[in-house]
Each structure stands twice: as C-alpha cells, then as structure tokens.
Amino acid sequence: MKNELMINIETTGQNPGCKVLSIGAAGFNMRREYVEFYRRFDHSKMGEAGLIDEEDTVNWWATQSVTARAEAFGGKDDPAEGIRDFKLWFYENFSTDRYDDFRVWCCGLDFDFPILKEFSRRFGFKFPWKFWTQFDYRTVKNIFPEIKNAEKNTGKHTALEDSKAQLRGLRAFYELIEKVA
What we know:
This protein is about 40% helix and about 15% strand.
C-alpha cells in the first residue's frame, strides 16, 4: 500500500454540524511508513462552535457498552487544537505535489467526510486534501465481503481501532485484486 489513509470518526449525530467525539486515522504515508493519528475531543467544548448532539445518536450511544461510552465521551482534547494537529500531521505524512498519488478512505462517503469537513470549518480549518482523492471503503467491503474477515476489529466504536481495522480490510482487498490480475 502506498500513500493511503483511512479515517474514522465517532460522533453524536449523523449530519454535518454534529459533535465529533474523536478522529482516528491510520495509513501508509508517502515514505511507505505506517502512521496513525488519534484525538478524543472534549464534548463540552463543541457547543461553543455551534455543534449539536442529535437525539437518535445520543440514544444509540446509551445502548453501547460502558467501555465504548467512556472511550467516546471521555476526551479531553480541545477540538480546535486537535483538528489543527490532524492537519499538521496530514501535511507531514501525506502531502504530495501530485494528489493522484494519494487516496483517503472512510466507511461511507456520506458520513465521515461531510461531518469532518464541517467540523474542521467550524474551527477555522479546510480539508487538507482534494475531493477527488476521497474513496469509499464501505462500497469495497460490500462488493468484496470476504475482506471483512481481515479487519479483526478489536475496539468497535473507537475511531482509531475502526480505522486500523478498515485499513487491514483495504489491504486484503488489494491482495485479492492482485491475485485476480
């Protein structure tokens, strides 16, 4: 895998403008090194930026394990500082002169990317990548369900563990298509 980044977020909603509890990212940077990023945000600091909790999602969190809820809602990082750190980390590891040499993935183009884009905007930042570099891992997983076995997710609803699991699935996808080609 070369210059690939998998992103996952945990939120209190399903729409742009909801609170982002955490962001996890795992990938292989432009030097082909494995790198990861994880921040858990202070839930109470996001209201100041006009971000909201959506009732259905908050109710869903109430049905999750105590461990998952503690991980999701226990963040202490300032959101503005965390998103700035993410952008700096991204530029250090994935910035290329040619964006055709980079792909950023998430599990559903209609969830992570639009929510993270709005979250970043609320704190004064723009996405550090171009829209044509965004890819949908959920589609790949649905077309090739056998790659799901490679995920081996050890921490569901934890943004970093989810992104690492999805990256393992993506690697299995690439290995599968190499066998066919």
